[in-house]
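User: Structure tokens for this complex, please. No commentary.
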Amino acid sequence: MSRHYSYVLIGSGVAAVTLARQLLQQDRSTSILMLEAGPRVPRGDRRGWWDYVLTGRKPYDFCRDLPGENRTEGDIDWGFDDSRIMAYGGSTGHWGAWSLRYKPEDFRLYSNTGEGADWPIGYDDLDPYYRQAEDYLSVCGDTGESWNANRAAQPYPRPPFGWTEADGLMVEAFRKNGIEPGCMPIARYRKCMTTGTCKYCPIGSRFTAHDVLDELADDPRHVNLEIRCLSPVTRLVADRKSNIAAAEFLDTKTGDTVSVTADVFVVAGGTYESPKLLMRSKSAFWPEGIGNDTDLVGRHIVSHSFLRVRGTLPTNHRRWLQEFDFPTLMSRTYDSPEHQLDGKIFIFKNRALPNVDIAGLMKKGKTREQIRAILSGPMTFELQAFYEEKGQHRNRLVERSGTNRFGLPLMTVNYLREPKFDERTKRQLALMKPVMDDMACENVATFVDDPGGHHASGTCRMAETPEEGVTDSNMKVFGTDNLYVCSNAAFPTCAAVNPTLTLTALTMRLAEHLAGAAPRPVASAAPLLAQEISA
Amino acid sequence: MAEVIAALAQQPVSSFPIANARVDAALLDHEDDFLPPAVRDRLWEIFVEIGRAWKNVSRDSAGLRSTWLEFIDAKTKSPPSYAGEYANAIAVMQELEGLLGREKAFEMLFFNSGVPDTPPLTRLAHVKKFVIDEFIAVQVTASGFRGFVDNEFSPNRPLNYAGFIRGSRYNERPMARLYKPAGSVRAAEGE
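Assistant:
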């Protein structure tokens, strides 16, 4: 196999798929090769859905990191479990679809606090792409919330999901504590029927890159779109310092290593795989790996620590349940410039509480009367928060020997908490606890959970100069002309909210940049006979 | 009644030779996805008994039949097929009903099976785990939850539960019990 493409996209998650979509909208005949290490897991499979309802197991669970496969060194246990999916469509297969914009101060973290980093772009640079991204993901949200004042002219495409009755007590407690209650912006199409099985939606009403990629692949105009699953990329090859000439990947059908050339390479392998690929692409031009002359690739890894306050009310005479499989109540009151130095928190009600496993009680032989008594008995509430930590140079992701079953290198995350972590989180929990107290909850307890991979970012961060980061303001790797990292890896900060909407907006911005950069026309690509979907 | 069931459950293995027999792998090794109508009808009777036992659905589960049939279809026409599990269930139920009578047989299965919460080894344990327990989960998510949650505060009100598909998405009824702050005028999805 020897083919030349306009673009080689590495990964098939929301970044790669959105970029492919945008590029194909500009030119339907653009030649794109998308390389995915994982398999293609069927969507909308009824047996898979029923088994999920019955057992909690999702059809894609086998595409996760295995316990113990990756390691942590430092003072925490980095959460690898359940944090990503290595498969066609990437982690949008399981994402919660919480879709929040970063706030203007998030792009100025270092300037505002002296910690972390600034972005080389500002909120205003991303604002128009946020709107595009919200339309694309079909975000349901409430434009009237005070933190949305800077986007007043850009209403959400869909109205929000309302607070459930079980949210009511916490809504009132928020107000007593000067916390503005808000509705969680969620990416849900109009056809959502809220089955509570969002992690494997039976009717495709939650955005997944898988569904978009299927549509792209099925479009007969996209004759030069090729998608290969089970094809882990092993190396990028530079033919001179500034030019990436080829990507090598393992063809798992034949066991052969295959080389493909392209005008532009985009690494969209997430915060883990993107730096690993750069680091192992060593050559005479890049002895420490591509983009790693200043030893920053893999550094500054950061994610959200999880703060929780849990309490119990003695009775639930209205038999309240959460009813939706996502939180409907949140607030960004403490996700503000005033809280940036201490670490902003984004607070929300636990999406699964209060709840009672009725079927589980029936299976145990509980009678109707016993079950109804349990439903009316004590109910547990939990207020949760993402806590923003600042990226630190000493924290780093590194490869270690061996590969996982998809051919991706194993890794170790070296991570030490920021020096003032304990005192800062104690203060943040002190902001949260009065909410539970005002709800008259008993046995109120606080928890601090370790960070993990769900929102990991920073390993190829954007910066003004190569001394400060790995990629420039367009996510192009410093020192190269045709290599980009389109991933959370390019985020200089992780803010206090979920990253996917911001990544999607950045991807749309990158697509415009690439259109302006005008790679060589499609005629440079060897003819392809048909779309190919492997595995 | 509980004493009767407990006594019956303590009878020697020889009293329930089928139910207490260890499962032979070949018994459940069904490549064939065909489920005879007679087996399906017997399975439906088991499903209906769940609603009768917990009194959480109306009209003898008639409104849940299409959901249940779709479930059975998915479980027998995609690998691994449950056709063997279902055939096993019918055989075990025949034995239990023959020895205990229909009412007591179901009472034992639902409320006092004695099956431990460990990997199932006997034919009875397979019936409990792979038929009874799964049917219970289907029944609850197919709207059976309402019969437990409904009370004087929410009679016939919208109510949601994990797995529940409430019908047409064009239905104008709200999806869940929603909190409305005093004076709220906001429009929300699902209203």
